[in-house]
Amino acid sequence: MNKNDRRIHDENTDFLLRCILSLQDLDECYAFFEDLCTVPELKSMARRIVVAKMLTEEKKYEDIVEKTGASTATISRVNRSLCYGNDGYTKIFQRISEEDTK
Hints:
This protein is mainly alpha-helical. It contains 7 helices and no strands. The chain has helices at about 5-10, 10-20, 25-35, 40-55, 60-70, 70-85, 90-100.
């Protein structure tokens, strides 16, 4: 178990994540997340993942703000996760990159 499990690991979160893991394609993902989240929630998560990707590409904060509209506070929080988190972003970006090269 990773270090954040104490804060988020519970039966409800397990169920949510199992549901996400059962999704089979992009259309199913869109349908599920549109049902689960409000538009602002979904846009916020999408913005954060783009911020994380740009940070891993060593983009400057100013460029990230310009492209995503994210606040510098959000960029800092995402950067903190990249530096001190559980490597979740890194694992996903590696997998996406591997898929893109196939």
